[in-house]
Every structure is written in structure tokens, then in C-alpha cells.
Amino acid sequence: MTAPAAGRPVRALTVDDLEDLAVGARVLAAGTEESAYHVALDWAAAELAAHGPVPLLPVDRLPGTGLCVAVTLAGASAALAEQLPTGEEPVRAVRAVERVAGRAAEAVVPLNAAAENALIALATAARCGLPLVDGDGCGRVLPLLEQTLFTLAGVAPAPLALATPSGDVVAVESARGRVEDLVRPLVLASGGWAVAAAYPMDGARLASCLVPGTVSRAVAAGAATGRARFAPWRPRSLCRGRIVAVEQSAGAYENHENGAAGPLTGLPGGPAGGTAAAVPHGTLGGVPDRVPLPSRPTSVLVEEDEGLRRRFRLEAHNEILLVLADGAPAASLPDQILMLSRTDRRVLDVERAVPGTAVEVVVIEAPAAWYTPEGRALARTGSGGTR
Amino acid sequence: MRIGIDVGRATSTAVLVDAAGRVLAEAVVDSAPRTGLCVRRALAALGPLPGPVGAVAVVTDLARRPPRPRPVAVLRIAPGSHAALAPLADRPEAAHTALGGLTGVVAGGSAVTGGSLGPLDRDGAAAFAGRARDAGVRVFAVCAAGAPARPGPELDAAAVLAATVPGASLSLSYETGAAGLRERENATAVNAALGGWAEELVADCRAALRSARIAAPLCFARDDGGLVSAEYFARHPVIATAPASACAARGALARTGLDQAVVVDAGARSVRCLVVRDGEPERSTRLLPGPFGVRLALGAPEVVETDGAEAAEVPATVARLLERVPGAGVLYTGGRAEAFGAPVGPGEPPAGDRERGTGRNVTRADTRTTGRTGAGADARTDARTDARTDVRTGAGADADPALHGRYPRLTDAARYAARADCRIEVEQVISAAGRAELDQALAAVRDHALSRCVAAGAAPGSVRIESLAHAPVAYLPAGVHRVTVRAAGAPAPGATP
């Protein structure tokens, strides 16, 4: 459905588009719990059915001085799959940010357009009666709330509001860099997930730091099949093989309790090997400012079953952060690295990686801003020297 | 000695193997509507048994004779949710009709980390049980949020239900499904609904064994191909509703000595194709519709089914599946294999006889015919209704070089079942603050899996852990792990009750 308007037409997302958006949004999601994905899908479908189509705002149609609010799932999709949403969470989170900001929101933007996050943002827009911005704040997926291009552009995530499935609403006002530290215990206390509304900013500001077109790209990708589905992201295949081992880093256990970050934390400028387990806590590669990642690291070993028959080591910590091919760096943050099931070319959840699974490892280039020194630092450490 | 019996829609096959897995006798008979009668006919066709039987394993699909499910009262223990996510809201209309629509939600349950979401609303649970009793429903499916991490709320609710409705039949989700509340709830509801079917099937088959004077433990094949005891099957039928293709595929691989292949299970009504890798049918990463079209996440093998009218699509399906297993061969099982490109004859020769050199396993055309190539293993039918029997026993079958008898494709599933182990799979979510605690928690899951395997019919001295996989749950605090364990063991000796 389209509505006539000056300039580019505003498209509206309908229930018919939802399935395509859901499928396309999975392209960037390396840690999607299948059950949670269906929760978000059914939830968004119900909101669209109840409240009607959601206008999709292209970047050139953003409200110049109107308030835009980013929305995302905070926490684990596995938790969402167990403790189901009431449907009130998004509107409560957005209203809380509006109260702090002192004005009403005019648009909702996905913090990232991957899997549940795209669907929850759509459900939020439908429930709040707001348009959804065709773009997102990340262009890929990174684990921390502050790891966004909004942060790189100097926009703070706070005031931020969390709404939990238990009915709690918590507004956070904080100096930049403290949000993740404050939010994570709240999310845990709420059962492992909440809806976060964050990065309130004017439309004009949003237009300057948004990764544009990512929602419509996901819809288009979802309508395609096979390799064409990934074509918009121009994926580079690293290897086709099978998982031969999945390992957890023993030493990282204690380090991570105390705040060591992911496997790349110790790398000053890019992939050079090593994991947090091998780096003494507190002096990681001269990057003292870092935010600990949730969960723990996992290594996935993949043996190529064609060509050079190399052994690939994927270092994951919520997302896949680094790939070594026979010990040599093959890809690393800020690239988005995905493991695809060769059964059906779906993105595999690292949690579900088991030996014997046939996979293809692909790399998708992140938006250019992630490749600046500041972008790389933010992707690696969660702070990016911005605090 | 052990016996495997594959009860298909139109044909049933039975295979008797010795302790070394050699085929001592085999039989192919027409199926009857009642599974017990199929078993009886197949056993009779095997003829006099040369000694005591250690176990009888039955392979049969729910779809062969769809049962009338029992109406189920589904109790969810969790905080309230969006109406679109209410208990069983995602099931298709047909399932509503089949299972009934009595559902309830009471407070309680746990988060995925195991943290309590509040005390169980016992009064609410009792009131729900009373409503069910008043509606004449005595079968309950209980699913608590967070049950894979903390089953306590389900056990507490079960006690309340049992006290309110004495003699109630209870299915608890922590015993049935994995993480993901809705799919686990669905699986528990389907499990509860199929209880009557399973109990009838067990009784029917036991009667058949008794009439054949066989005093041996009865087992049923699971969807992934392992076995479980009749008692375990009666409590957990949802894990054993479509085992035929997995068993046939495993049998075909065992027959040929391959460890990976695309297997074409060709029946008269449908053709099912699946990928087997490292001897294991490849599982779906997606949620699949199970019985009554209800969406489940039980790790069932991914089977691409083509009905008879669309058989021309089979080669394209095979080509697509071959892309997943470069270098693998195509194996055929079932009675109509030749119609889909299999060499005419009794089946692929063993690995030693296979031609190699093209990167794929190529079977020689075999011009021998069995006279039974029109009969299939699942819908192994030529639609004739007269009871036919085709038997081969004794040293002749034993002399077969591949130990797979005279009708190898036809008896793949039964032969596999005759040799298979009991097997279970357990998925849990554990929380551990440090390495030592994690190791302890993993050991506990391991022990639980071994106990469960014994409960599923395995001999205590034979149970072993086949695999243990665990990984941190993404985006949760360090220390929350998802653990999946598989355990297996030989069927325990015993007698048919």
C-alpha cells in the first residue's frame, strides 16, 4: 500500500509484508532463537492486524524537528522465548522516554534491523500509531546498546527506558558510556529481556547518522529466495565445510566475570589473533575503556570440505567476532560474520552449533562508518574511546 | 536374537537378526488396519523362531492410521502474555478441533535463567483442574515458563491437578520439549493427546507378541531412529510419531556401508527424501509442523515429502539435497525405488562392491529381481487387498553377503530397528557461576541423561553418552548454558508384561 505524497511516496508495511520482513531480517541475525523469532513474528502480526499498516518513512521524509525513538530488544532472545511479552512493553518504553524528553515521539526507528529487533520495532510503531523509519542505527548487529552509529555520531542512548514483561518500567538518564552497565542488571532482574526505547533525537539528526533503507532492503530480501536473498548484502563466502568442534574458553570464565570483553579486545587495530583468555585482565591491549559483553565466548571449528580444506576457527561472543583460516585472520569485526546452514541457507545460531553440521561461513561488509578508527574501536570494545 | 517390524500403510516387514546383526529370517506381509494384527501376521510369517528373542522393535508412523486424539486441558504456568501468544493460539484450526480448546494460564514459572517469576497460583491451578473435570477432560498438559531450567513449578502443579482430578493423565513439558515455551507447550499438548493412541498401540502389540509366544521387551522407534521401551513410548508418544523414513534411511546406510547420502524412501503414496550425514538423519533448524499441524521443536529429521502425484519433482529434490552433501551418493529404500532411478534389483550392494572414482558412490545395475519390487516399505503398496506372505528364513538369508536379506530395500527400516539401541536426548538450561560449578552441572545433566536412557528401556550396564554439546546462551549473563545430551544403550532384557 502506498500513500501519495510530495517527493518519494511513503510506503506502508502491511501484514502481507510482514513475512518478507521477518525472513529478510534474519539475514543479519547470528543469534536468533527460533522460538523467539516466531514470538516476535506473531506479536507483530497481531499488532498490524489490530492497528493497521505502518507507514515506512524514507530518510528524506523524516520529521525535521520531530522526536524519533530507537527501539530494540534488550537481552536474550532465548529469554523472550520463555517469558512471553504482554504486548504493552513497547508502548510503555516509548511513553517513558517521551515523559523524560518532554515531547511526543513522531517516529520509531529500529536500533538494528535484524530478526526480532526489526519485528519488535514494527510492533511498537503499530501499537503507538507511529511511522517506522526505513533504516536503523547499526547496519549490522553488535551486542551492546551503545555499539551503534548513533553513538559514533555523538548521540547518547539515554534517556532510555526499559519496559519488562513483568510490567516494570525503568527510565535511565546517564552520562554516555554508563548505559550498558546500568541496563544489564535490570534486564537480568526482569527475566532476561526487556524492550528498550533509546536514542531520542530529532528527525534531522537521525537522518545524518542513520543507515538508510535497511527495512525495505530486508523486505525485498525476504521476498527473494536462495542466494538472491543475500544478494543485497553482497556476502563473501569464506568457506563451505562442517563444524568439527565447539569449544568454550576455560580461562575466559573468570576474566569475563570481571569485565574482560570479547576475543578482539586485545587487538589494537584489527585481527591479530589471541583471545581474552590469553590476555591479562585489566590491561587488554592498551584499551582500558571497555564494556564487558554478556554471555561467554565460544569457539567454533569448521573444516572446509572442498578447495584447500583449511580449518577455520570462529570466535564468537554473542556474535561471531573473528575468523581465522589455518591461523591467519580471514575476517573480523566490524565485518558481520555469519554461519549459514547448508541445509537451507538459514543463518545458524552459534548457540545451536553442533559438530557435524554442514555450514557455509560468509562475511557481510558493515556500513563504512564502522571501518573508521572510532568505529572499529566502538565495535571492539563497546566504548570506542568515546568516554 | 532381536526382531524389527516395520508396519507400513500397505505392507509390513519383519526381520529376525542374531546377536551379530545377521539376518536369520525376514517376512513381508500385507498390512491390516490394526497394527497388532500386522505384527501378528509378520511374526507368523517369520515362522518358528530358533531361540528366545531379546527384544522386538516396532516402527510405525502415526499417519498410517491417524488416531482420534484425547481432548486435552492445557495449563500454562507463566505471567500473562499477548493474546496472540496465548496457549495454543498458534495451532491451526484442525488442531483446535482435534485437541479441544480448554486452556488456562496461572501465575508462576521461571525465567530462562531459572529465576522465579513468582509463586505458583495453586488455587488457580486447582480451579482450572475443576473446570476440566466438569468438562469431562481428564488429560492435562502442563507447561511452565522456564521449565528446562527449573521443573519445580510443573511438578507442584501436577500434584495440585492430581489431587483435584484423581486418576488424571498428566504430561509435563520439562520431560517433553526444549527451550521455547510455545513449542514446548505444543509438544506437551500433542503428547497428552496421543496418550490413548500410544497405550492402545502398546497393548495391541503386546497382545500380538503374547499370541506368538514371544516373551521379550517391546520397543518403538523414535522419529530420529533410536528406540524407546513401550512404557516410555506410552508416556512420550510425541517423540515417536514418524520414525519410518529415519529408520529406513539408517537401514539403507547400514546396508551399504556409507555414512552420508541422500536417501529416497519411495512409497506408493509418497516419496520422502532426507539427507543422512555421519550416519545421522539431518535435523531441521526450523520449527516443523508435527501431528495435527501443530508447530513443534523436537529436532525431528528434515524430510522432504512429495506425494505420488508429484513424483516428477523427486529428481529435482534429490539434486537440491545433494548440494548439501557434496560427494555423497543417492540411496533408495522402499518398494518403489526403481520408479525413481534406483537400479533394478534387491538394492545397492555393500560398500566393497561399489564402483568408485567419480566422487559419488555409484551402484552397479543389478539385473536380479525379487518378484517383490512393487511393494514398498511405508506406503509399500500395490493396492492389492489379499493377504500375501513372502518369507525367507534360515541359512539362505544368513548367507547374504551384506547381511541384509533378500529384500533389502523393503526391509531397511525393520532391519535397522532390529539392531538399534534405545536412545534419548535431553536439553536443559543450566546456570553456573564458575568453571567448577559448570563442570558439576554438566555432570548432573549427563547423569540425568543416562538415567533417562535406562528409563527409556536401555540396559543399565550398556548406557553411554553419545554426545554432549553445550554453549553459553547469547546475551545472557555469563554462566547460563544450553546443554544437549544424547545417551544410548542396548534394549534391556526382560519379558513382555
Automatic annotation (TrEMBL), chain A:
Residue span, S-Me-THD N-terminal domain: 16-173
Listed name of the protein: DUF917 domain-containing protein
Chain ranges of the S-Me-THD-like C-terminal domain: 178-378
SUPFAM superfamilies: CV3147-like (SSF160991)
Entry-linked InterPro entries: S-Me-THD-like_C, S-Me-THD_C_sf, S-Me-THD_N, S-Me-THD_N_sf
